[in-house]
Amino acid sequence: MTSPTTIVIPTLGRPSLTALLQRLASLPGTLPPIVLVDDRPGPAQPLDLPTSLDVRGEAVVVRRSGGRGPAAARNVGWRVATTPWVSFLDDDVLPDEDWLELLAADLAAAPLNVAGSQGRVWVPLPADRRPTDWERGTAGLATATWITADMSYRRPALAAVGGFDERFPRAYREDADLGLRVVASRGAITQGSRRIAHPVRPTGWWTSLRQQAGNADDVLMRRLHGRDWRRRALAPAGRRGRHLATVGSGAVGLVAVAAGNRHRRLAVVGAAGWALGIAEFVARRIAPGPGNPVEVAKMVTTSVAIPPAAVWHTARGLWQHRRTGPWRGLPELVLFDRDGTLVENVPYNGDPAQVRPVDGAAEAVSALRERGVKVGVVTNQSGIGSGRISIDDVKAVNRRVDELLGPFDVWEVCPHTAADACGCRKPAPGMVKAACRETGVDPAHCVLVGDIGSDVDAAEAAGAVGVLVPTAITRPEEIDTAAVVYGDVGTAVAEVLRCHW
Fold first, then answer.
1. Catalytic: which of 91, 106, 150, 337?
2. Among the options 133, 339, 451, 457, which is catalytic?
3. How far apart are CA 303 and CA 307, in angstroms?
């Protein structure tokens, strides 16, 4: 029986990944296909996968995302999936024994107006003492909305909104952003019955300080979703206002001191405001904790450093996202014209030996595959219809293109001449629509890169986006009328991967 979902697990190769995979392999029931997305930066290193998965005989696909963060890693994962649903798990969770059974039930019970199903999270905390600040923060995941530690989405819903916004570089707000976009445009997100455990990871002394980088993400959330995004995402209120007041008081005090004795009273007021702000922050963090000397010392030192760090990252976010617009995401499918775009244009070529990729074509196609974007070719071959070459000649040339640049996910060839007035020859949209049908992609999420105006016209007629890469045969009026023009195929793909399409 075909699985309704694919499990996507972004990972940094932590030891917890092995524990998760072993747990999945031990669960009763049919294990769905698994996509592991290795988000470690640097040269590829093999992941340590338990042999128990091989015993189950399940398909485990490993993809790389180049250390671009969990949002980008999850996007690579869901684009690989072909199932109706995609189920995301973090690499440090442990599903309950009945997780697979309840996951299947949750997805089967979801009506068509439900775009997502959230699992239940519980965080094991020490039974013999009060939790630390870090443990309390982790425990908040149990009540977080749309948390991707265990979240399933319908794949068409992900495609429609462009997936996760990769401008969120850390695991902090990317799940709330996606949830808001899905609920606004694609349907409800419900709470399922399945459950996972999310253990508290070991942490260092300055972890809470490093977390202040998330203030820049809060700025992005406000830019994208408005002032009331916390209310709609059921996110707890932050402390940005209090941190700003604390830092402002301290700054006033320092400036007054530098100005000399004339402003002694202002210096005292500023210092007092800073001290009161820090004292309130320290007390709020220490009071619910275990109260041991190490935890107290950590709270005091980090509480002094956190307010200026929070203000700094807020200011950084305001500057970085001052012109940020809505997330569009990558296309699901990029189609290429063959002759002149992927390979040198040899008129009516039936000889595989004459196939030579244009500069940058191999790297461009490879970059798309690495990001999980499907790739295909749509090519007019009127030489078949006119008798200059045979269909077998064209197939041989296409096999050579596949050898050099492939494999491509879809090929579409029109054998007709212009006189045949067919619906597939570009600028007609037939081949573009057929490629989208074969790959299961909405034409609105497809881009066609070609070197003449008929390529662009075919894309637009199909509801896709046409990108023109001019060559010596491109007419000036074609360049003038094209909405998107780049100088070479490498630049065109690079801009598509920056979501400029």
1. 337
2. 339
3. 7
**Catalytic: 48?**
no
- DSSP code string of 374-430: EEEEEEE-HHHHHTSS-HHHHHHHHHHHHHHH---SEEEEE---GGG--SSSTTSSH
DSSP 8-state secondary structure symbol assigned to residue 443: G
Instruction: Give dist(CA 196, CA 150) in Å, integer.
Output: 7
The 10 Å CB-count burial string (b at 16+, else e) for 354-387 is: ebebbebbeebbebbbebbbbbbbbbbbbbbbee
Percent of the chain beyond pLDDT 90?
87
The label of the residue with tokens 């209120």 reads 237
Q: Give the chain's mean pLDDT.
A: 94
What pLDDT score was predicted for residue 360? 96
The question of whether 337 is a catalytic residue gets the answer: yes
Contact 216, 313 (CB under 8 A): yes
**The pLDDT of residue 139 is above 60:** yes
Can you say how many angstroms the Cα of residue 414 is from the centroid of all Cα atoms in its chain? 35
Mean pLDDT to the nearest integer, 13-40? 92
Q: What is the pLDDT of residue 45?
A: 82
| Preceding peptide of 407 cis, ω within 30° | yes
What is the Cα–Cα distance from 120 to 115, expressed in whole angstroms?
17
Phi, psi of 47 (to 5 degrees): -80, 145
Residues shown for the chain: 501
- Domains defined for the chain, CATH in brackets: 5-203 (3.90.550.10), 204-325 (no CATH), 333-497 (3.40.50.1000)
Give dist(CA 424, CA 380) in Å, integer: 9
pTM over 0.70: yes
